[in-house]
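User: Hi! I'm working on a homework problem where we have to compare a predicted structure to a textbook description. Could you give me the structure for the chain below?
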Amino acid sequence: MDPLTQGTLGAALPQSFSRQVHTGAAGLLGFLAGMAPDLDVLIRSAEDPLLFLEYHRQFTHSLVFIPLGGAICALVLHGLLGRRRGLAFHQTWLFCTLGYATHALLDACTTYGTMLLWPFSDQRFAWNTISIIDPLLTLPLLLAVVLAWALRKPGIARVGLVWALCYLGFGLYQRDAAVQMGRELALSRGHTAHGLEAKPSFGNVLLWKTVYADGDRYYVDAVRVTWRPKVYPGDSVLKLDLERDMPWLEANSQQALDVERFRWFSNDYVALDPEHPNRVIDIRYSMLPNEIDPLWSIELSPNAGRWDHVEYVMSRDGGPERAAILWQMLTSP
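Assistant: Happy to help. Predicted structure tokens:
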């Protein structure tokens, strides 16, 4: 999730367990600790552009790391904030740990993938119930946190938590409905939908992107569920086959290893970019939910040396035109 949502949820939980006099301190410590796990984005390398993909949402997001993460935050923040607000260290640690604990679970509700069970497993959990940015989740929760601090009423923070849980539950219901619509769409085409997943489009839980495999192709569509259900047929693309798509790629080269790393990160939803013959794309993410156009990809070079890495490419060319199309898909009859 975005840092504001992570911090706000991180603030709401310790506020809910605090006494009135500590509502402000609990919220501030929880807010900072709730954002702290994403400091793992600093683990990156100029030589290896995929290193951050391996470490983002890894050990800092593991469930077993929560007490240690909370302790690290407390060690940093107690002298700066906790002691000055009359807290004992164990209180600072409790508020920081509660805030820290919300982060990974909220991230797992998105589609990116979070290694909750590291180091015992490198499985990436993605429950696909909410977009990484969703104002309808964040703004009411933020209002509850601010009011709880201003009025010194922890009960208001509890109301915010109830709202967050209800909204995430609604996203779960919407996801299952989108999966069912995706199955029906695949059946109408005579397809056997393998690995069908539904993912919320940007900023809402009404319009969903469905992805499934049939034969050697991936199919991407958009469905609007519950409210005026509607299908927006999308594109399809061949699954990545390195022998067919990049016969020049040496099997033991660093670029080939990087493709497998990217395949792991993308949960095997990878294909060759139709517009760039040397790019491997992650088809799970696009600005419009019925498009293949990726938000990120890797680019290989036939002339690269044996130990040269791929190039990581970001493609977030949304613009007002695509935003208008997304809004139309959300609101059209």
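For your comparison, note the following. The first strand starts at residue 194 and ends at 200. Residues 3-171 form one domain. Good luck with the assignment!
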